[in-house]
């Protein structure tokens, strides 16, 4: 599910709002005690063996496909991207959606129902698999708090939206332009409009992280 952009936060009763985690976006495919983490460009992450081994044990389902973010968190629960990039911290999986679970295709179900299913199959206090919560209606206040705590931003999602890439309304990220961890990273992770994202430096970095065994 792609992320669109909007500059200004907004509040609406039909939308929910989540933290924008600063890490590597991934789908987690879990089946028969085995987990594969697949990047947004289709690369299989191979450099997080402890995480892939632990996720099936913490998942409260036999098989599932989860959408989320591979992150490293500090003691305050904030993403630390350099810790993740250079493997200086323990990777976790922040799950914010479920596409499929124990034979049920959930992609056409409303987001708010998928979130409830996801909550049911993630541990209350997981060591590796974490549930990404949300707030309802109060997008502007939530964004203000995200900026106050120096987070990357928030993501706005329509509560009734299916998990279909071309569906409307989609998911919208709202970036904190003063986010401290973006200093010095713009050239590596953002390309000028019109460039092919598959050959961007971000994709090259993602591929390196996917194929390296560190």
Word description of this protein:
The longest helix is centred in the middle third of the chain and has 11 residues, at 111-121. Mean pLDDT is 89; it is low at 191-202. The protein has 6 helices and 11 strands. The chain starts with a strand and ends with a helix. It has a single domain (3-211), classed as D-amino Acid Aminotransferase, Chain A, domain 1 (2-Layer Sandwich), CATH 3.30.470.30. By secondary structure, the chain is an alpha+beta fold.
Which structural traits does this protein have?
5-stranded mixed beta sheet, alpha+beta, 11 strands, single chain, 214 residues, D-amino Acid Aminotransferase, Chain A, domain 1
What layout of secondary structure does this protein have?
Blueprint: E1 3-5, E2 12-19, E3 24-31, E4 34-39, H1 49-58, E5 63-72, H2 81-85, E6 91-101, E7 104-105, H3 111-121, E8 129-131, E9 135-137, H4 139-148, E10 153-158, E11 171-175, H5 186-189, H6 201-211
Parallel strand pairs: 1-11, 6-8
Antiparallel strand pairs: 2-9, 2-10, 3-4, 3-5, 5-6, 6-7, 10-11
What can be said about this structure in brief?
The chain is built from six helices and eleven strands. The strands form two sheets. Strands 3, 4, 5, 6, 7 and 8 form a six-stranded mixed sheet that branches. Strands 1-11-10-2-9 form a five-stranded mixed sheet.
